[in-house]
Fold this protein.
Amino acid sequence: MPLFGKEHVERYEATDGKEGYDWENGTTILLLHTTGRKSGKERIHPLIYRDWEDTYLIVASKGGDPDAPEWFKNIEKNPDVEIQIKADTFPVHARVATAEEKPAMWKHMTEVWPSYEEYQGKTDREIPVVVLERA
């Protein structure tokens, strides 16, 4: 049974990703650590990711909701965040893929999670691919 939400974060952290890294349909998960733009509190989000050259990609889909996910709003305010991949936690700088980069990156992400295409069809909001570069 796949993990979700707070339980996913807790199991991932407690086991250094032995539980929670491998997820549904062969996807892999990282933990994104952001600072709440309003609260100033640490927020941790389990997200599907893929390697891309020397960076990591995540998608701000929120299941096709017209509003962007809270974690995306947080990185818009403060793009310097941390990620955890298995036992390795390190700082990254988050940015939105450029118009030139996005088509290939989007294809790379939809290869492992085809539902991103469905999510994009449900909203007028352009769902961004976020590039995480080691700081």
Remarks:
- Residues 5-15 form the longest helix (11 residues).
- The two ends are 34 Å apart (CA to CA).
- The first strand starts at residue 28 and ends at 35.
- The mean pLDDT is 97.
